[in-house]
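F.,

This is the one I mentioned.
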């Protein structure tokens, strides 16, 4: 017990000294510089380069998000990809909507966002599915399962009172960056 307290005290002291001297930030900047110059072309460097905190915030086209963007569809940090809630945003007449068509639209968007972040459907770790009616579960699950031929991720499905953007389903997820 004494040795762990001593190690903790030592690590805290070293961290404080490094922080005071600014060494931690220079080490981080060298790591970022090495990551962006390790084989990525210049177009990749712009969209793949993290900010000083190591966080990459990207829009739906995979480009770095702007200062005025309130919600980022894709954020990559520490090898994880966070995809914000994706909805169908169906412009057809509501009488034409089906849970199957909305689930396919939303899963295609989720797949695209995960790929923008550097993952695949096989690297999706967890999804949250929001349905406007719990009765849509069977139709959603039927389409959902076609996206995971190698086994699906952890998933939570809940019914909610309403969803924004003319959608019967909304899905957000967390995925791992694929190893190259």
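My design for it:
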């Amino acid at each position: 017990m004494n040795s762990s307290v001593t190690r903790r005290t030592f690590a805290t002291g070293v961290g404080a000294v490094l922080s005071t001297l600014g060494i931690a930030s220079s080490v981080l900047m060298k790591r970022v510089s090495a990551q962006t110059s390790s084989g990525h072309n210049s177009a990749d460097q712009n969209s793949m380069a993290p900010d000083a905190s190591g966080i990459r915030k990207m829009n739906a086209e995979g480009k770095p998000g702007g200062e005025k963007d309130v919600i980022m569809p894709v954020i990559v940090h520490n090898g994880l990809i966070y995809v914000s809630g994706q909805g169908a945003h169906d412009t057809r007449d509501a009488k034409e909507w089906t849970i199957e068509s909305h689930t396919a639209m939303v899963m295609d968007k989720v797949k695209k966002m995960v790929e923008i972040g550097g993952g695949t459907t096989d690297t999706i770790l967890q999804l949250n599915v929001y349905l406007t009616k719990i009765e849509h579960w069977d139709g959603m699950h039927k389409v959902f399962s076609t996206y995971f031929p190698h086994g699906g991720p952890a998933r939570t499905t809940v019914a909610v009172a309403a969803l924004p953007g003319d959608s019967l389903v909304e899905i957000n997820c967390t995925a791992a960056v694929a190893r190259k």
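Residues 52-176 form a domain with the 60s Ribosomal Protein L30; Chain: A; fold (CATH 3.30.1330.40).

Talk soon.
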